[in-house]
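stuck on whats below:

***
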Amino acid sequence: MKVKGYTLSYCPWCNRAKKFFADHSVQFDFVDYDLVNSEDQKRIEQEMKSHTGGDVSFPYVVIGEAVVVGWNPDRYKQLLGLKE
């Protein structure tokens, strides 16, 4: 299952999300929103808003077709079919 998302390089919750996927040997593709140019930031904001009803919050994680906004390891496990 494909895992991607948007994070902030300085956000502790975003770093926990990245560590969660690494610790569970789940391949993921994350982009640090604060480190990309303004054009990419606008594109990212539009994508996020289209899936959240206008909310731009981090971490923003897409697992398959499901969007998870915020640090939510239980939901990550559920969507990935991981055991405790």
